[in-house]
């Protein structure tokens, strides 16, 4: 065989060997980091590496993290292992797959649960994604329209990492909207007869609208609403159980003893909030938790100085 032809044949053989080597599948990282346990699972000569040893960051989806023989040799020697005498590269990459229409629409329906959503998928990101939970938050909607909108979402993988994706969709919902029955003014507490329920069918609204008439009575309006206006959730609040300056009933106890005394609220709050209270007799201040309208309980271990000490010497 002529010398030039033999050189060509050697080149083809070497190139073919490289192609075969490159075709060896990469192993999937186990998380944010490639660990000693990951390498030990694919390289027997590194089986004694500490499983939790952080070897390097996992690559982003679509890229590979390649470990060359010299790098693996240094890693082995640094951890007290014999020379693995490796000759081939080892790589790590996330397995990727195209997100199915069922997964995309299912994630969107989850975001609109309880609102009878109708979703038509028109187009989508065709980039393969790593395996994980598909999420389409309502905040990812580019608009609220009868026409097609872009809905941005992501895939959660490796614990907290996110792989961004998107889809073009037509979205409609069918739900109950509460609307003002007559004018509602700032500071009004909603009472029966001040709202009416109507069935809405159309694109989801940008603002959340009250929908359950059984849960709105007593809510306090933070803005005015004209007759027929949707009652926006963000402009109502749960009324405070105690206002600043209110005289409240203070419950205090230590062991079997339990007393009631008046106190002056230094802060406003709702049930469950901890606020400051002043003892009007001693002018002493302490902290107490609101348990009902006009009623607070002294925090355990707190001395309120309401009635001296109990029989065991504990302050009340």
Descriptive overview:
With 316 residues, this protein is α+β, with helices and mostly antiparallel strands. The protein has 3 domains: 3-92, no CATH class; 96-239, Antifreeze-like/N-acetylneuraminic acid synthase C-terminal domain (Type Iii Antifreeze Protein Isoform Hplc 12); 240-316, SH3 type barrels (Roll), CATH 2.30.30. Helices cover 15% and strands 32% of the residues. The protein contains 4 helices and 18 strands. It has helices spanning 3-22, 36-42, 69-78, 101-111; strands at residues 33-35, 54-57, 65-67, 90-92, 96-97, 118-124, 129-130, 133-135, 149-157, 161-180, 195-202, 220-221, 236-237, 247-254, 257-265, 274-278, 285-292, 295-298. Strands 6, 8, 9, 10 and 11 form a 5-stranded antiparallel sheet that branches. It has a 5-stranded mixed beta barrel with strand order 14-15-16-17-18. A two-stranded antiparallel sheet has the order 1-2. The radius of gyration is 33 Å and the shape is flat. Mean pLDDT is 87; it is low at 1-23 and 308-316.
Number of discrete helical segments: 4
The structure class reads alpha+beta
What's the CATH architecture of the largest domain? Alpha-Beta Complex
* CATH fold label of the largest domain: Type Iii Antifreeze Protein Isoform Hplc 12
Helix content range:
10-25%
Number of strands: 18
């Amino acid at each position: 065989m002529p010398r030039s032809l033999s050189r060509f044949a050697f080149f083809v053989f070497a190139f073919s060997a490289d192609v075969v080597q490159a075709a060896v599948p990469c192993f999937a990282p186990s998380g944010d980091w490639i660990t000693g346990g990951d390498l030990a699972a694919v390289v027997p000569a590194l089986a004694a590496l500490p499983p939790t040893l952080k070897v390097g960051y996992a690559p982003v989806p679509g890229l590979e993290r390649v470990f060359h023989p010299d790098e693996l040799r240094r890693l082995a020697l640094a951890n007290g292992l014999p020379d693995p005498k490796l000759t081939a590269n080892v790589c790590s990459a996330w397995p990727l797959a195209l997100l199915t229409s069922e997964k995309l629409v299912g994630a969107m329906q989850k975001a609109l649960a309880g609102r009878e959503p109708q979703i038509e998928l028109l187009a989508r990101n065709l980039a393969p994604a790593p395996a994980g939970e598909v999420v389409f938050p309502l905040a990812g909607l580019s608009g609220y329209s009868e026409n097609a909108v872009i809905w941005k979402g992501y895939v959660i993988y490796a614990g907290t990492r996110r792989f961004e994706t998107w889809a073009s969709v037509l979205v409609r919902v069918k739900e109950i909207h509460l609307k003002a029955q007559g004018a509602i003014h700032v500071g009004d507490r909603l009472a029966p007869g001040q709202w009416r329920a109507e069935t809405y069918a159309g694109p989801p609204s940008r603002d959340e609208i009250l929908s359950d008439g059984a849960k709105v009575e007593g809510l306090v309006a933070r803005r005015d609403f004209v007759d027929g206006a949707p009652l926006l959730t963000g402009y109502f609040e749960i009324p405070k159980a105690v206002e600043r300056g209110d005289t409240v009933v203070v419950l205090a106890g230590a062991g079997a003893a339990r007393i009631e005394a008046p106190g002056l609220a230094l802060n406003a709050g709702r049930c469950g909030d901890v606020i400051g209270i002043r003892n009007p007799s001693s002018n002493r201040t302490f902290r107490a938790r609101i348990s009902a309208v006009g009623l607070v309980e002294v925090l355990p271990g707190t001395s309120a100085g309401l009635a001296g000490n109990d029989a065991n010497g504990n302050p009340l």
